[in-house]
């Protein structure tokens, strides 16, 4: 790698490059300085910034390792006749790919080619990918991994508020809160610097955590008299229906606010009438007095926030559950009232921007609907095509993957920024679907497990090697800056799209300059819900020099929007909708000796682990999959701490190390999903989806466990790691 060019960045005293972490949506600010002679090309320092206040988690501190990984891809790889991936030139790779795409298109029609994007892509790449799919490939079949992440919360926010910005307020608003309820969110591990924003609530004894595990976040309730409730996994909907019931029955709700700012109270009231606390206790395992205490604490707070994470959203009833959380917040009069609110914690680095600019099957840039004729006309004019040239809505991620290679599905798939064979639900079936494809193309900078299956692998730039923008969990648009030159051979995805578009005779312009692509994105988003039209790279740089923040919507002539709901909600009448939701009539629960499997994250690993399993310090700390099990459950099945357990169901089998811990319910087992192949938790998860959002059921599966008497592998690490 060549020397860093230490340009840019004003927020710190350092001369280095001011940028943000490659991983999660907190987008902690960091400075990258040249580290000559060191193994890593740049040194990472935390930079003062509202979300992280100079702090970084372990993943952030070690992120420069990624730039120096020994197995970095720098040459296109094509599957040879011997079945192995072998090096090829860019020219050959792109010529062959374009020809093959054209063949498949003329044989089966344009929808035979699909695109799978990612919430880690910059806004520029996400935007360009949506455009590339629609007018270069002319396919409707594009979706992305945000479907696995934010789709339920997004659907719930959209129907309640008319808009979806994960946090409709700056994160620092939480600092002075005295009451914060976190539902299915483990920020202690998933966004460690976030915890500093919970100080006020902790000090006031108002941190309320709902999680079937005593997670590191749940533990934060122990010092200040907060409350942790440990419901049966997947029972959050009845829990929230019950809290709404209590709030209404005990007249704890804000009747003035509800009358002035919402619609739908009478239907909501009827829908929760039968969810009295004793019935909820039965459904959730949470004692009725605790439910009452929770409701009262929420209502008593001077400054109260309700926040949801994936634990409540990644279910087949995730949209309704998030909706029930919003209903509770609305009854309490929180959204849009100073010092209180509702939000969902976006996960991926650009999980927010990634869901605004057209990677989603039903979406055009600016959070526009692809079925809206006006939106189509506007975007078509920016793209330089007729509105008719833009295909209609495609299919959501699970369907896109699982139908691959069938008559109804795509024959080719281009993957940008996701390691789907590890992270998709029912991973065995997903892998089989990918194997049916005529053509799998993966753009990545490492040979991820998905790239290993590809017919063609294209090596791309990473994080500190390119310019761009990210939109963090608050809707704050940030500059990601280049700190060093990419290794010879790796190419920007903007370049790949431009080269393919040219070979496919696509209309439109295909700039290689992220600043230009951003300007086009800004024009395409103008007038949409997520309006970026007043922004540019230059303005963002100037604003960060001054310490100003750019929250969308940011139309031309504005200064952006820190708090979304001060003057009303985004429905035409300005009111939020209370949406009555019901518990699904039937959901199979664990019976007999079955357990409920929940899945989630560890501090040290990120997502499919494609990146963090390559960082020595992180991988040494968590080298393999550990199943968190209650000691009583373990003893009952003859399992010992550090021994091996086989976890299985009709979909698959995972062998894991037993990590005994009293922090989990005895009827529940937890597996992190960061590990691959035979250790992949998703071999066990179901691809049943939420009917509204198409979010898969990652957070509850039914499994059986048994000890493995004669271990095939010896555990690499000792006990207690789950
Ligand atoms: N270290 C690390 N940090 C990350 C990521 C990562 O992979 N690793 N990924 C980023 C991304 S993309 C995301 S989306 C976020 C996710 O951030 P979180 O939502 O905080 O992460 P999870 O661990 O998936 O789930 C949170 C909690 O939900 C609980 N849970 C499971 N089932 C249920 C249930 O039925 N009900 C309730 N109430 N809780 C349940 C789990 O026990 C877990 O503690 O993290 C981001 N940050
Ligand atoms: N069981 C279970 N499964 C889950 C979840 C769960 O809680 N439980 N959570 C779900 C959630 S919330 C999410 S967000 C998904 C995430 O799961 P994935 O979509 O698999 O996410 P990553 O592991 O981040 O994969 C990103 C891949 O893209 C590469 N990459 C990074 N940046 C770029 C880029 O700019 N361009 C390109 N082309 N490639 C890039 C990385 O090297 C990596 O291989 O997993 C979902 N799966
Ligand atoms: S919390 Fe997220 S953004 Fe911050 S350093 Fe850790 S991974 Fe990076
Ligand atoms: Mo996510």
Automatic annotation (TrEMBL):
GO terms for biological process: respiratory electron transport chain. PANTHER family: NADH-QUINONE OXIDOREDUCTASE SUBUNIT G (PTHR43105:SF10), RESPIRATORY NITRATE REDUCTASE (PTHR43105). PROSITE patterns: 4FE4S_MOW_BIS_MGD. Residues 14-71 form the 4Fe-4S Mo/W bis-MGD-type domain. It comes from the Bacteria. The lineage of its organism: Bacteria, Bacillati, Actinomycetota, Actinomycetes, Micrococcales. The keyword Thylakoid does not apply. GO terms for cellular component: membrane. Keywords: 4Fe-4S, Iron, Iron-sulfur, Metal-binding. The keyword Ribosomal protein does not apply. This is Molybdopterin oxidoreductase family protein. GO terms for molecular function: 4 iron, 4 sulfur cluster binding; metal ion binding; molybdopterin cofactor binding; NADH dehydrogenase activity.
């Amino acid at each position: 790698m060549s020397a860093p060019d230490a340009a840019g960045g004003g927020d710190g005293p350092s001369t280095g490059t001011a940028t943000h972490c490659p991983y999660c949506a907190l987008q902690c600010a960091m400075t990258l300085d040249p580290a000559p002679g060191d193994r890593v090309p740049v040194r990472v320092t935390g930079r003062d910034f509202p979300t992280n206040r100079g702090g970084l988690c372990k993943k952030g501190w070690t992120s420069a390792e990624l730039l120096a990984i020994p197995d970095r891809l720098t040459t296109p790889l094509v599957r040879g006749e011997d079945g192995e991936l072998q090096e090829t030139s860019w020219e050959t790779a792109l010529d062959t790919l374009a020809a093959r795409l054209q063949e498949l298109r003329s044989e089966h029609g344009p929808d035979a080619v699909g695109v799978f994007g990612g919430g880690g892509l910059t806004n520029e790449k996400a935007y360009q990918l949506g455009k590339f799919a629609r007018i270069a490939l002319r396919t409707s079949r594009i979706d992305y991994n945000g479907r696995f992440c934010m789709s339920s919360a997004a659907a719930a926010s959209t129907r309640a508020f008319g808009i979806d910005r994960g946090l409709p307020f700056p994160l620092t608003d939480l600092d002075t809160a005295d009451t914060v309820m976190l539902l299915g969110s483990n920020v202690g591990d998933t966004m460690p610097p976030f915890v500093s924003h919970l100080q006020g609530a902790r000090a006031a004894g108002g941190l309320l955590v709902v999680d079937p595990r005593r997670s590191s976040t749940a533990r934060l309730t122990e010092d200040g008299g907060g409350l942790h409730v440990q419901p049966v996994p997947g029972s959050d909907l009845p829990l929230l229906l019950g809290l709404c019931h209590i709030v209404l029955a005990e007249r704890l709700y804000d009747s003035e606010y509800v009358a002035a700012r919402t619609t739908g109270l009478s239907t909501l009231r009827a829908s929760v009438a039968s969810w009295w606390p004793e019935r909820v206790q039965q459904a959730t395992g949470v004692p009725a007095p605790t439910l009452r205490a929770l409701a009262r604490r929420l209502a008593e707070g001077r400054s109260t926030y309700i926040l949801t994470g994936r634990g409540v959203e990644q279910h087949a009833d995730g949209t309704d559950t998030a909706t029930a959380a919003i209903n509770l917040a609305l009854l309490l009069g929180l959204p849009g009232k100073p010092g209180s609110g509702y939000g969902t914690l976006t996960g991926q680095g650009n999980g927010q921007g990634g869901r605004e600019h057209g990677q989603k099957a039903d979406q055009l840039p600016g959070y526009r609907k692809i079925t809206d004729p006006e939106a189509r006309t506007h975007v078509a004019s920016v793209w330089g095509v007729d509105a008719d040239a833009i295909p209609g809505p495609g299919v959501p991620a699970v369907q896109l993957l699982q139908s691959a290679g069938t008559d109804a599905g795509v024959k080719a798939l281009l993957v940008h920024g996701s390691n789907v064979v590890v992270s998709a639900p029912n991973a065995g079936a997903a892998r089989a679907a990918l194997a049916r494809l005529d053509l799998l193309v993966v753009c990545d900078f490492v040979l991820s497990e998905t790239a290993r299956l590809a017919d063609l692998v294209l090596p791309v730039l990473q994080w500190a090697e390119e310019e761009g923008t990210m939109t963090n969990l608050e809707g704050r648009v940030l500059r990601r800056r280049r700190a060093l030159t990419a290794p010879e051979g790796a190419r920007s995805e903007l370049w790949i799209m431009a080269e393919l578009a040219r070979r496919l005779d696509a209309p439109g312009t295909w700039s290689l300059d992220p600043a230009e692509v951003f300007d086009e994105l800004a024009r395409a988003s103008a007038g949409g819900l997520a309006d970026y039209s007043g922004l540019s790279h230059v303005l963002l740089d100037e604003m960060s020099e001054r310490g100003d923040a750019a929250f969308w919507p940011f139309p031309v002539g504005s200064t952006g929007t820190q708090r979304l709901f001060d003057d009303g909600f985004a429905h035409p009448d300005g009111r939020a909708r209370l949406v009555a939701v019901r518990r699904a009539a039937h959901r199979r629960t664990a019976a007999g000796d079955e357990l409920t499997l929940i899945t989630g994250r560890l501090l040290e690993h990120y997502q499919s682990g494609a990146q963090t399993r390559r960082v020595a310090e992180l991988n040494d700390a968590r080298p393999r999959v550990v199943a968190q099990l209650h000691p009583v459950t373990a003893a009952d099945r003859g399992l010992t701490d550090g021994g091996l357990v086989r976890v299985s169901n009709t979909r698959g089998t995972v062998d894991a190390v037993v990590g005994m811990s009293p922090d989990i319910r005895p009827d529940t087992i937890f597996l992190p999903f960061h590990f691959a192949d035979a250790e992949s938790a998703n071999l066990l998860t179901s691809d049943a989806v939420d009917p509204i959002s198409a979010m898969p059921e990652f957070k509850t599966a039914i499994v059986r466990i048994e000890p493995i008497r004669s271990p095939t592998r010896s555990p690499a690490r000792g006990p207690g790691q789950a």
